[in-house]
Amino acid sequence: MSTILIIFCVLSAVTIATAFLTIYSRNPIHSALYLVISFFSIAGHYLLLNSQFLAIMHIIVYSGAIMILFLFTIMLMNLNKENEVHKPRITRLGAIVSFCLISLVLIAIFINSKPIVGEYISTGADYQSIKVLGLVLLNEYMVPFEFASILLLVAMIGSVLLSKKEKTEK
Amino acid sequence: MSIETISLSGRKKVVSNKEMTFLEKMYLLAIIKGMIITIKHLFTRKVTIKYPEQVREMSPVYRGQHQLKRDEQGRENCTACGLCALSCPAEAITMKAEERKADEKHLYREEKYASIYEINMLRCIFCGLCEEACPKDAIYLTTSKTLVESSYDREDFIYGKDRLVMPLDIAMKNTQLKNAN
Amino acid sequence: MDSSIIIEKSVIILVVFAITMLMAMYSTLAERKVAAWLQDRIGPNRAGKGGILQPLADGLKLFSKEEFEPDTPNRFLFFAGPALAMTTALMTSAVIPWGDKFHLFGRDIILQATDIDVALLYLIGVMSIGVYGIMIGGWASNNKFSLIGAVRAASQMISYEVAMGLSLIALLMMTGTLSLREISMQQAGMNWNVFYQPLSFFIFLICAFAETNRTPFDLAECETELVGGYHTEYSSMKMGFYLFAEYANMFISSTILAVLFFGGYNYPGMSWAVENWGVNLANVIGIIALFIKICGFIFLYMWVRWTIPRFRYDQLMHLGWRILIPLSILNIIITGIVMLRAEIAIYLGF
């Protein structure tokens, strides 16, 4: 086995194990931290694919921003075992059934799909370089890029509107 | 002169609540001013006294532990007049007077002496008024560095004659020094 | 990849690690000394000559203290907190160019652990995960004061990260690269970025103060409100790690300031020195120049600490979100206009 394969196996094991533990662990803080480790190992996968930019962005955005806000809310809400919401049995049964159905569909898709392996077109451009990446994003994919920014702007305005207090009439 | 205009330090500043200008609101000038003040202190003389090697000068009016004096012949000066106790603002001194016997002439200078002389060191403020009040030059505040030795019991702070009277050998030595001069 | 490059990189990593630790150690002494000098005192001068062994004595004292453990919900996380804080503080030094290059044994040795393309993003990424050490430690202490201190420190750090990132964008528009090595090279001579981007430097400096949780932004520690902040429950060397991480962070952020805005290892007349004195000597002087700049910034940190009183928490948030972020966005716009002034002039028909 080559070194890269070993690293890939270890990273995959870590990713899957922590993702599983995220769901499985009862303490919400533990699950959040497992999710953080999972994100880090996914960033490791990106590094294995030689895309440093994506890896670092993944760390900044997911581990550095989103998960910290998650942790914040969880820590301040002080969730623990005592005030855990007890779900009725019918809901749990429904969840299990829907999960089984979805996994059935997914497995069916995976079995029946045929992998399309095309030729890797080498243009000579180094797509890991942020310079090339920036040019591609702002030339070829300009419209989706700007749409994404508008989407983020809308989300921001929405949250500002929601958090703004309504003026009470006196 | 009314109380509002008095300024003891000469640097009195009237506080005003006026609106700050934009430049003042940025606080940048104020911060730079403050930084200059602190950096000036980097080059000023340091006031620290490096204690074990360097000792702070004793004040000439320093007042330490009390001592009851003896005269040249080693007799106690105190005559138990009670003026020290009277002058003591902290009421720390108590004493009991007694008449001198015929065979005690070498011990006490006057016909009356203090059989008990106690200073409560927990009350004493080392003001030195007892020293000033004494007509017989009996009580003095020495330049001893320790004022009162520490202890766990309150009784230990009531100093009797055993700890206040000047030791005899020192009195003799003083006499010899005086004669030599 | 041949074995010599591995040896070379390992040596550089070891040296950088050792220097970071040494600088962090002596920052603690420098802090006490500078504090003393600014207050007309002498400072620690008993351990060694002029107190030179004081950091060792402090370390020894911390090691010999009792290892206290609160009734923590997760013992592992309680230990992981200080370790994470220390790791993230040390990780940053990997991408910093300490000098240009040495020419030894017939080969060029680049004085940098790794020259990655996205070095600046890496710095921001490491800074953003630096919050975890504080948050995990604060939560695992199982103490309300620790938790509130951790939440305070973390929210302060993530608030100022935004302004910091935005202030860097203006710089990046000018340099056109994220690699710290290239940014350093562009500043050869006296083309220091601080002359071109003073506002960006200023915002970055304020944010660096906030990121390292130092005065005037040291709200995470507060005797009257929060006891010791997030490290209330820590003792012995775990506490030492948190304090040490703070000083390591200070060193690293001073280094980043020096590299990004003050020319890194460049000094006036460096190209002349390379020609006349050879590459090696010129770069030794370059490293010394970089460390002089770093020490200057560390001194600035301490100087500010003993000058400016701390902010109130709402003032801190106000400064971060409502002053620094708009200011840095304005800086980006100004930079853009200046960069495209020729095109704009043509467009407007001048």
UniProtKB/TrEMBL annotation, chain A:
Chief place where the protein resides: membrane
Keyword Transmembrane helix in annotation: yes
Reaction catalyzed: a quinone + NADH + 5 H(+)(in) = a quinol + NAD(+) + 4 H(+)(out)
One GO cellular component term noted in the UniProt record for this chain: plasma membrane
Enzyme class: translocase
Molecular function GO terms recorded: NADH dehydrogenase (ubiquinone) activity; quinone binding
Keyword presence, NADP: no
Membrane-spanning segments: 6-24, 31-49, 55-78, 90-111, 141-162
Name of protein: NADH-quinone oxidoreductase subunit J
EC number: 7.1.1.-
Keyword annotations: Cell membrane, Membrane, NAD, Quinone, Transmembrane, Transmembrane helix
Short name of one Pfam family: Oxidored_q3
Bilayer topology term: Multi-pass membrane protein
Subcellular location: Cell membrane
Sequence similarity: Belongs to the complex I subunit 6 family.
Family annotation (InterPro entries): NADH_UbQ/plastoQ_OxRdtase_su6, Nuo/plastoQ_OxRdtase_6_NuoJ
Role of this protein: NDH-1 shuttles electrons from NADH, via FMN and iron-sulfur (Fe-S) centers, to quinones in the respiratory chain. Couples the redox reaction to proton translocation (for every two electrons transferred, four hydrogen ions are translocated across the cytoplasmic membrane), and thus conserves the redox energy in a proton gradient.
Native source species: Flavobacterium hiemivividum
TrEMBL record, chain B:
Cofactor note: Binds 2 [4Fe-4S] clusters per subunit.
GO cellular component: plasma membrane
Keywords: 4Fe-4S, Cell membrane, Iron, Iron-sulfur, Membrane, Metal-binding, NAD, Quinone, Repeat, Translocase, Ubiquinone
UniProt xrefs under InterPro entries: 4Fe4S_Fe-S-bd, 4Fe4S_Fe_S_CS, NADH_quinone_OxRdtase_chainI
Source superkingdom: Bacteria
A Pfam family it matches: Fer4_7
Principal place of residence: membrane
Reaction equation(s) it catalyzes: a quinone + NADH + 5 H(+)(in) = a quinol + NAD(+) + 4 H(+)(out)
Record EC number: 7.1.1.-
Binding residue positions for [4Fe-4S] cluster 2: 88, 124, 127, 130
GO molecular function, one term: iron ion binding
One BP term from GO: aerobic respiration
Topology within the bilayer: Peripheral membrane protein
Domain 4Fe-4S ferredoxin-type span(s) in chain numbering: 69-98, 115-144
Binding annotation for [4Fe-4S] cluster 1: 78, 81, 84, 134
UniProt cofactor(s): [4Fe-4S] cluster
Localisation per UniProt entry: Cell membrane
Family recorded in the similarity comment: Belongs to the complex I 23 kDa subunit family.
Quaternary organization: NDH-1 is composed of 14 different subunits. Subunits NuoA, H, J, K, L, M, N constitute the membrane sector of the complex.
HAMAP family for this protein: NDH1_NuoI (MF_01351)
Function: NDH-1 shuttles electrons from NADH, via FMN and iron-sulfur (Fe-S) centers, to quinones in the respiratory chain. The immediate electron acceptor for the enzyme in this species is believed to be ubiquinone. Couples the redox reaction to proton translocation (for every two electrons transferred, four hydrogen ions are translocated across the cytoplasmic membrane), and thus conserves the redox energy in a proton gradient.
Name the record gives this protein: NADH-quinone oxidoreductase subunit I
Organism: Flavobacterium hiemivividum
Lineage: Bacteria, Pseudomonadati, Bacteroidota, Flavobacteriia, Flavobacteriales
From TrEMBL, chain C:
Residue spans crossing the bilayer: 12-29, 76-98, 119-140, 160-180, 192-211, 247-267, 279-303, 323-348
Lipid metabolism keyword on record: no
GO cellular component, one term: plasma membrane
Assembly description: NDH-1 is composed of 14 different subunits. Subunits NuoA, H, J, K, L, M, N constitute the membrane sector of the complex.
Protein's name according to its UniProt entry: NADH-quinone oxidoreductase subunit H
Keywords recorded for this protein, A-Z: Cell membrane, Membrane, NAD, Oxidoreductase, Quinone, Translocase, Transmembrane, Transmembrane helix, Ubiquinone
HAMAP family named in the record: NDH1_NuoH (MF_01350)
UniProt-listed GO biological process terms: aerobic respiration
Pfam families listed in its UniProt record: NADHdh (PF00146)
Record-level Gene Ontology MF annotations: NADH dehydrogenase activity; oxidoreductase activity, acting on NAD(P)H, quinone or similar compound as acceptor; quinone binding
PANTHER family (UniProt xref): NADH DEHYDROGENASE SUBUNIT 1, NADH-UBIQUINONE OXIDOREDUCTASE CHAIN 1
Enzyme nomenclature, EC number: 7.1.1.-
Catalytic activity of the protein: a quinone + NADH + 5 H(+)(in) = a quinol + NAD(+) + 4 H(+)(out)
InterPro entries membership: NADH_UbQ_OxRdtase_su1/FPO, NADH_UbQ_OxRdtase_su1_CS
Organism field: Flavobacterium hiemivividum
Record localization: Cell membrane; Membrane
Function: NDH-1 shuttles electrons from NADH, via FMN and iron-sulfur (Fe-S) centers, to quinones in the respiratory chain. The immediate electron acceptor for the enzyme in this species is believed to be ubiquinone. Couples the redox reaction to proton translocation (for every two electrons transferred, four hydrogen ions are translocated across the cytoplasmic membrane), and thus conserves the redox energy in a proton gradient. This subunit may bind ubiquinone.
